[in-house]
């Protein structure tokens, strides 16, 4: 069996297997160099540890040599990681940037050495030193979050608390763009009342926002993907909110880590009688929160599929083939060819079918699962 067919076979098998975080990922390539270098943003977020595990599972028995490095929230460390992988003779770079714009220096170093670059999950912006992008449909993620709040809204005048990801992450803008698309008509007609953003309030009658307008809102509501920052913001917002902005509320939380922190704050306020809160990533801790009724939903982004897309693309490049793409993204300097992966809304009604029956998690990972 050839290297490519064996690797892709293992990728398919990995999609049916979990729990192999300890697997190695350095199968010999036979060329004396490194086939695929992978750089992930940080080990401090559950999401990226999950990605590392899925890469390890997919590559454990392949003939492709790989190395995974973490940048730990530092663009300087990110560039150092790329340079380390270049020195090891890597053939293809897969990189999820800490800061989409600052990562340009890192990927330009790879391109200077003739190394193809795949931007993973987060888009690297303002550089033409990029070949491909594999991603979930980030606008669709935000739209699913916003639509869930709309579908679960009862009555009118519902206080709406908005939160966003990091202003340095292009995905945070795309998530908010999608959420606004679903929410804005219901803000304009009075179903929702914006509770915590003067910038969003000033734009409530505008259906489509440009990047600068989205940036003005994200700048007010950024959590920087940090649960502690999300907790502090939520506490500040609820402290300053009057009784008319409490009661039954809706909360747009950008991801699961921030959702848990924000939900804990809202749950502790006696004047908040109920809350509907979004999330994304299907973190194990948030699945338990959903089972327990402490988080309402999450957007499941099956990392197994994203890893398979990224590695399949890398293998195609190594073998001299043209990877399949389904979309393009404007990164400010070029139109980047991309492959998108679908997302799934998960709540109490379908959590078992989507995450347990599919083999993504084990039932024994949770309590109270029916």
TrEMBL record:
GO terms for molecular function: carbohydrate binding. Pfam families: Peripla_BP_4 (PF13407). GO terms for cellular component: outer membrane-bounded periplasmic space. This is Sugar ABC transporter substrate-binding protein. Residues 36-321 form the Periplasmic binding protein domain. Keywords: Signal. It is found in: Cell envelope. It comes from the Bacteria. Residues 1-21 form the signal peptide.
């Amino acid at each position: 069996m050839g290297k490519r067919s064996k690797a892709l076979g293992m990728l398919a098998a990995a999609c049916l297997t979990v729990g192999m975080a300890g697997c190695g990922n350095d199968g010999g390539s036979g060329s004396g160099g490194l086939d695929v270098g992978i750089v992930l943003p940080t080990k401090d977020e559950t999401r990226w540890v999950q990605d590392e595990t899925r890469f390890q599972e997919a590559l454990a028995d392949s003939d492709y040599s790989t190395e995974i490095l973490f940048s730990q929230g530092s663009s300087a460390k990110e560039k150092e990681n790329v340079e380390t992988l270049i020195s090891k003779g890597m053939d293809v770079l897969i990189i999820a940037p800490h800061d989409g714009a600052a990562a340009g220096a890192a990927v330009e170093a790879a391109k200077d050495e003739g190394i193809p670059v795949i931007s993973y999950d987060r888009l690297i912006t303002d550089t033409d030193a990029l070949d491909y992008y594999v991603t979930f449909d980030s606008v669709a993620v935000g739209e699913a979050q916003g639509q869930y709040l709309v579908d679960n809204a009862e009555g009118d005048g519902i206080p709406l608390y908005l939160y966003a990801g990091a202003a340095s992450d292009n995905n945070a803008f795309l998530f908010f763009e999608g959420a606004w698309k679903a929410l804005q008509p219901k803000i304009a007609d009075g179903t929702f009342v914006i509770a915590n953003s003067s910038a969003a309030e000033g734009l409530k009658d505008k259906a489509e926002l440009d990047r600068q307008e989205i940036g003005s809102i994200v700048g007010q509501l950024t959590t920087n993907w940090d649960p502690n920052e999300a907790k502090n913001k939520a506490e500040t917002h609820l402290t300053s909110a009057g009784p008319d902005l409490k009661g039954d509320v809706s909360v747009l939380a950008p991801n699961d880590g921030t959702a848990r922190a924000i939900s804990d704050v809202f749950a502790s306020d006696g004047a908040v009688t109920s809350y509907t809160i979004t999330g994304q990533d299907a973190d194990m801790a948030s699945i338990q929160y959903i089972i327990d009724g402490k988080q309402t939903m999450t957007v499941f982004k099956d990392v197994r599929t994203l890893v398979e897309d990224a590695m399949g693309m890398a293998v195609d490049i190594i073998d001299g083939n043209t990877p399949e793409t389904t979309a393009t993204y404007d990164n400010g300097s070029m139109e980047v060819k991309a492959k998108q992966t679908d997302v799934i809304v998960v709540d109490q009604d379908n959590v078992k079918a989507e995450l347990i029956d599919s083999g993504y998690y084990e039932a024994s990972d949770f309590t109270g699962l029916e």
